[in-house]
UniProtKB/TrEMBL annotation:
Gene Ontology annotations of biological process type: cellular respiration
A GO MF label: metal ion binding
Keywords assigned by UniProt, alphabetized: 4Fe-4S, Flavoprotein, FMN, Iron, Iron-sulfur, Metal-binding
Protein name: Oxidoreductase
Residue ranges annotated for the NADH-ubiquinone oxidoreductase 51kDa subunit iron-sulphur binding domain, each copy included: 325-369
Source taxonomy: Bacteria, Bacillati, Actinomycetota, Actinomycetes, Kitasatosporales
Record bears the keyword Magnesium: no
InterPro entries for this protein: ComplexI_51kDa_subunit, Nuo51_FMN-bd, Nuo51_FMN-bd_sf, Nuop51_4Fe4S-bd, Nuop51_4Fe4S-bd_sf, Soluble_ligand-bd
Family, as annotated: Belongs to the complex I 51 kDa subunit family.
Region (Disordered): 513-539
Cross-referenced SMART domains: NADH_4Fe-4S
Cofactors (names): [4Fe-4S] cluster; FMN
Length: 539
């Protein structure tokens, strides 16, 4: 059974490092070390910055792959038309169990991400920068980086910068969810699709992209488009960050130039020589069968051409000894549990698809297969966010990639192979890193975890009391009677389940650090450079 990935797994690089430069020297590049490794960065005008992004064909690295230069121009035009300053948002909400590339960058190279974000803010005249995260480790690292640069959220600052932390849920990583939470609402999609470029944070045009995208922009701004294009493919230059897990000897995050054969990446991580299949792009991605894996190379267009997806950069092989449909069922059930519960395609459709896939495995026959296909088709392009679309794509890809196993289950008595659980998930009892108890604590007694109720989000559904009666009970008004409470070790798994299934995302778990020394380093308060000069030297 694969365990949940740590926040910062092993990091490797193929060829010369760009984003991971300096990782061989220190665990985290603070501002002085960052400047020693990468050097200072001069501001660029808006047109120059957009042209740079277009010259290197920079696309968003969060999954959608939208052209960054086009997004930058759209935000600038909208801001000029409305006569208001835009907002810059870094999306570091990496909540998929199989993805860690952005988390690694935020933990180890936060200033490279800030370089890109500050370039954009300077070019467009933005006065607000928000970095969205969901993990304790990423929150601490990015808050430390802002402090090292002398950036804050104080009124009167030329650029107000802050970190927005949301719950670890698949839907909180959606752009609309992050924007809604920044505005003070719940970290769930608003139910209507509005372009952030037109109306994002506070109704202002908002440039939102993921952490790796801003880091790539910072690299290109330093070395120039010609040197940047010397690495990787002609039409997709540069490097990409991948998270490789699943049936591998060494789960890792790896920086590779585009054009590297996928099989080479798998070999580095110790994957089977002949995997039964490889899931590309993460749990909103697509499977490649064994025959196609050897043809695939690492790039967005090349993977799409052979039926795969780069997506969020997660690569997950499985062995010949496991049931691929059973492995996919675990993921489908998790995706269904991650629903925000706001729209029928997500709240009803995804659980129905997971039940249908389970029916296939249990000998439901052709009728079960047709039912799954129909449900997957019906949920697409009808949800409040992209979660139903991505989940349906994953299920359809599963049915397409493993036809022999599908036939064995639909027409016979199954494939005869066990489900090994090689695809990492946040399951009951598997607490995401950052809220784990200390290694010396016993399995019984009190833990160092506390569960909190966010009253601004709680809607009185009462599900917390049903799932965690040891901690919560409802008052006469139907709301929990406590705002925070310690979590006994014996019910940690149930507490995690309550957090993840709260329809309003009103619960969170944090480590109770009272009595423990803080792991956050004492940072010097910068006496100068409280404004835009943080872009260059931090002084």
């Amino acid at each position: 059974m694969n365990e949940a990935l740590p926040d910062v797994p092993e990091v490797r690089v193929v060829g010369l490092p760009q984003l991971t430069s300096g990782f061989d020297l220190v665990e985290r590049l603070d501002l002085p070390m960052h400047l020693k490794v990468h050097g200072p960065l001069e501001p660029l005008g808006g047109e120059d910055l957009a042209s740079l992004a277009e010259d290197i064909n920079l696309k968003g690295r969060g999954g959608a792959g939208f052209p960054f230069g086009k997004k930058l121009r759209s935000v600038a035009e909208s801001a000029i038309k409305k006569g208001i300053r835009p907002v810059v948002v870094v999306n570091g909400s990496e909540d998929e169990p199989a993805c860690r590339k952005d988390t690694v960058l935020i933990n180890r190279a936060p200033h490279l991400i800030l370089d890109g974000a500050l370039l954009v803010a300077e070019a467009m005249g933005a006065r607000q920068l928000v970095i969205g995260v969901t993990r304790e480790s990423t929150q601490r690292s990015m808050e430390a980086a802002l402090e090292e640069r002398g950036l804050s959220n104080r009124r009167g600052s030329p650029l107000r910068a802050r970190v927005q932390r949301n719950p670890i849920r698949m839907v909180t990583g959606a752009a609309a969810s992050l924007i809604r939470s920044i505005d003070g609402g719940p970290a769930v999609p608003p139910g209507r699709k509005v372009s952030a470029s037109q109306a994002g944070v506070g109704g202002a045009p908002t440039l939102l992209s993921n952490a790796e995208t801003f880091a790539q922009l910072a690299i290109a701004a330093r070395i120039g488009p010609d040197r940047y294009r010397n690495t990787g493919l002609y039409d997709e230059p540069g490097t990409v960050m991948l998270t490789v897990s699943g049936a591998v000897a060494r789960p890792m995050v790896i920086e590779v130039p585009t054009g590297v054969p996928l099989r080479y990446v798998l070999q580095l991580a110790g994957a089977p020589a002949m995997p039964q299949g490889v899931l590309t792009g993460g749990y909103h991605g697509k499977w490649l069968d064994a025959a196609t894996v050897n043809e695939a190379i690492v790039s967005r267009d090349s993977l799409a051409a052979v039926g795969g997806a780069l997506g969020a950069g997660a690569i997950l092989p499985i062995t010949q000894e496991t049931c691929p449909l059973g492995e996919s069922l675990r993921v489908a059930q998790w995706l269904a549990d991650e629903s925000a519960g706001q729209c029928g395609p997500c709240y009803l459709g995804l659980p129905a698809a997971a039940r249908g896939l389970a029916d296939i495995l249990n000998g439901g026959g052709p009728a079960a297969l047709e039912a799954v296909k129909q449900v997957a088709k019906s949920v697409k392009r009808r949800g409040a966010c992209s979660h139903p679309d991505g989940s349906a794509m994953f299920i359809e890809s599963t049915l397409k990639a493993f036809t022999d196993d599908l036939a064995a289950h639909v027409l016979g008595n199954g494939c005869g192979r066990p489900v090994e659980g090689v695809l990492p998930l946040f399951e009951d009892g598997q607490v995401p890193m950052g809220i784990l108890s200390g290694p010396g604590e016993q399995e019984t007694g009190s833990s160092r975890q506390k569960i909190f109720v966010d009253w601004t989000l709680c809607r009185g559904h009462g599900l917390c009391a049903d799932l965690l009666p040891e901690v919560f009970e409802l008052g006469a008004d139907g709301f929990p009677t406590v705002a925070q409470a310690p979590v006994p070790r014996s019910v940690e798994a149930k507490a995690l389940r309550a957090v993840r299934r709260c329809p309003a995302l009103a619960l969170r778990i944090e480590e109770d650090t009272r009595g423990a020394s803080s792991s956050r380093p004492n940072l010097p308060v910068l006496s100068q450079g409280r404004g835009r000069r943080a872009l260059g030297s931090g002084r």
